[in-house]
Amino acid sequence: MTKLRKATATLTPLAPSPAPAVAGLPRWVLITGALVAALASAGAAVAQTDVSGSNTVSVDQVQHNLSIDQDRIGDAQRAQGDLSAALKSYQASMGIRRKLAERDPGNAQWQRGLSVSHDRIGDVQRAQGDLGAALKSFQAGMEIARKLAERDPGNAQWQRDLSVSHNKIGDVQSAQGDLGGALKSFQADMEIARKLAERDPGNAEWQRGLSVSHERIGEVQSAQGDLGGALKSFQAGMEIARKLAERDPGNAEWQRDLSVSHNLIGNVQSAQGDLGEALKSYQASMGIRRKLAERDPGNAQWQRDLSISHDRIGNMQSAQGDLSAALKSYQASMGIRRKLAERDPGNAEWQRDLVVSHVKIGDVQSAQGDLGGALKSFQASMEIARKLAERDPGNAQWQTDLAFSCWKLSQLDTPALPKAERRALLKRGLAVLERLQQRGQLTPDKQTWPEAFRQALQKLAR
Questions:
Q1: Domain assignment present for 215
Q2: Where would one find the signal peptide in this protein (predicted)?
Q3: Residue 96 and residue 100: Cα distance in Å, rounded?
Q4: CA count, 13 A, side-chain hemisphere, 240
Q5: CA dist 149 to 5, 134, 252, 359, Å?
Q6: Considering its fold, how many domains does the chain have in total?
Q7: Residue 122 shares a structural domain with residue 206
Q8: 129 and 195 in one domain?
């Protein structure tokens, strides 16, 4: 038991004071190094411990601690953009938790831990673009969460876990083009979130959960064309997010939530044609995001958020006719996204961000008369979109991106792109859209796209 106690002790100080030689290293490096050392020490101790009946509970707790530390390593790796490494860490954690849950099925703590592992793995799979695998992971997590919530309806944490599961499943359904299924999932999430928030109005976690629920429903309403309903949902979410951010200005997560609310409201204002108000919303969002990115330059999420703000502001500048300013905004966004994509080429979300940036830059170049530059930008976008679409044929968003890239290239009237190639691009894009339409995955705002492709084909045939 001496070795076991020593092993357990190493798990407590996650980031000891760095020696002078490593004092300049980022905090995540120190944390990861400390955790790796703890895991190695504790793992060796457990392996060498004589597990008798009287020691079983202690060993189980050490195993549980090991799973938590694997999660923390995975969180650090994910924050740095290394999804493959994060997935391995989360799978290692799940391996431990599955054994604990099988050993004692009645232990709610072990069961909840297994549910959390499914969710973390699903998060990475979704970020990698594997929506089918992500959905299975989230559904496995929900099955456990539902059983725990039914076992004790008065347990707020278990109710919250079930709410989160609905949310994650809804996100995947939305990405797959199943807006009806997504809306049902988000409404189930909202029902739980509202009850929790009403039960304890001073609980910041419950309030934040309710804010997120409003936003998820608003996103589906927006995709369905209900801009008025979406704006109301986003404003309800922002009201909560603002109160939380004012309560604790140093809480980075709450500040980010507020920036997201500004962004979502700006999206609706833009769609409604209120460009001035949309620009104000996007600038408010960027002000928060720039501070977060400067506070932690190594945080990939903060950097990506900042790139999105540059994009949104560029959209407004372009719509207002200021093409030079828009190009600068899009290039600033591209600079951030290229670094992120190079950091982790397997991160599908970041690859898709590059698709968007290339298209936006190409649009401005085309409007400025730089058809050669636009051609290069649209071709770069097409190449990435093609790879993503081939990686997951069931991902409606990526298939739509491919069709859109085909459209952008086909509309360039330049000798460098003969009519035969432009027609081939339109036919390819139309085939993609028709498949999506047949499967019911073409969102309401894109239902007119197939006909637009057909009309463009007729014009080129003349």
A1: yes
A2: none
A3: 6
A4: 24
A5: 34, 22, 30, 46
A6: 3
A7: no
A8: no
> For residue 325, which of 378, 364, 354 has the smallest C-alpha distance?
364
Taking Cα atoms as reference points, which of 81, 70, 93 lies closest to residue 128? Answer: 81
| CATH number of the CATH domain containing 398 | 1.25.40
Q: For residue 360, give the DSSP letter.
A: H
Query: Running along the chain, 462 residues long, what does each successive block of 10 average in pLDDT?
Result: 35 31 38 48 45 56 89 89 91 94 91 95 91 95 96 92 95 91 96 94 92 95 94 97 95 96 97 95 97 93 96 95 97 97 90 96 97 97 96 90 96 93 96 93 88 95 81
Residue 332 to residues 137, 160, 373, Cα–Cα distance (Å): 36, 39, 17
DSSP-derived secondary structure letter, 417: S
Last residue of one domain, picked from the residues 108, 132, 151: 151
Q: How far apart are CA 176 and CA 418, in angstroms?
A: 34
Q: Both 169 and 147 in a single domain?
A: no
Q: Are 138 and 108 spatial neighbours (Cβ–Cβ below 8 Å)?
A: no
Residue 260 token pair: 């997201």
d(CA 42, CA 60): 12
* CB-CB contact of 166 with 182 (8 Å): no
- Residue 299 forms part of a structural domain: no
Name the residue range of residue 182's domain: 154-288
Report how far residue 390's alpha carbon sits from residue 170's, in angstroms, rounded to the nearest whole number: 24
Q: Which residues of 133-154 are buried (b: 16+ CB within 10 A; e: fewer)?
A: bbbbbbebbbebbbebbeeeee
All residues at 6 or more sequence positions from 24 whose CB lies less than 8 Å from its CB, including other chains: none
pLDDT value at position 281?
Answer: 97
Question: How many other CB atoms are found less than 10 A from the CB of residue 323?
Answer: 16
What is the distance between the alpha carbons of residues 360 and 311, in angstroms, rounded to a whole number? 8
DSSP class of residue 14 equals S
- Report if residue 305 sits inside a domain: no
Report pTM. 0.69
Q: How would DSSP label each residue in 293-338?
A: HHH-TT-HHHHHHHHHHHHHHHHHHHHTT-HHHHHHHHHHHHHHHH
Q: Within a domain: residue 316?
A: no
Q: Alpha-carbon dihedral of residues 34, 38, 41, 47, nearest 10 degrees?
A: -150
Q: Which two tokens stand for residue 113?
A: 């831990």
| Residue 304: both structure tokens together | 């990506």
CB-based burial, 295-307: b 16+ in 10 Å, e otherwise: ebeebbbbbbbbb
From 95, 59, 90, select the one nearest 77 (Cα to Cα).
Answer: 90
Q: What is the pLDDT of residue 279?
A: 95
Q: What is the CATH number of the domain that holds 265?
A: 1.25.40.10
